[in-house]
Amino acid sequence: MRDFVLFAHIILGLALIAFPIIILLYLKKQTNWIKPLSFATAAISWILLLPAGKLYITFYPATKTLIKAGSWSWAHSIIMETKEHWGLLLPIIATVAAGMVFTGKAEESKRWWILTIILSALLGIMGRIVKIGALQ
Amino acid sequence: MIKFNFYLGATVSAWLLVILIVIAEFIVQFKTFLASTFGHHWIGKAVIVTFAFLAFGFLLKNRNSIGDLSDDKLAWYSVLGSLIVIFLFFIIEFFK
Fold this sequence. Notes:
The complex is a heterodimer of chains A (136) and B (96).
Chain A: H1 2-26, H2 34-47, H3 49-69, H4 74-102, H5 106-133
Helix pairs in contact in A: 1-2, 1-3, 1-5, 2-4, 3-4, 4-5
Chain B: H1 6-26, H2 28-38, H3 41-59, E1 65-66, E2 69-70, H4 71-95
Antiparallel strand pairs in B: 1-2
Helix pairs in contact in B: 1-2, 1-3, 1-4, 2-3
């Protein structure tokens, strides 16, 4: 169960880096699949909350205990606390980006897609730091 | 197409999230209230922020600015500001 949720979390998170990159590359070419892909990306950002929440609420407490007992307690207090809350803004950012594509403001959507990519990548890196923190 | 102001919905939810985090960290009863109402304080924040995004996106659908600030700039700086404030808040809390 844990592995399935973890893989879903990672795969959906990677999609939130890959899909916006594809959207940015083809945004000016007015291809007919940009809107469906934008919608799918925003949908994925909301769906991602499910495995993220399951991991955080069900499986993370044991990891948290390990981190807080070790020498990297900041990995929970700063990194994980920030990650769990930044993650709540990710679907809103991706939805704004998709919303701009749907309302004909493709140019305005660019910086929101870039923010989606950067934030998704940062959340992934932060997850890795938390994982390492449990081993310290 | 249904009108929806993505920018102002994002603006309100970005700052509301900061407010919820700060209140939940300083007032234990509020964090407990979120946990007992929604099952976990994180779920509570997620539900409230999502509801605010949708509600204010629809309520403010006919506005394109707040005061002198255009909604796109307001949303952009609010979201960036929220991300920065959240990170700084937990750094300060850790070293306090």
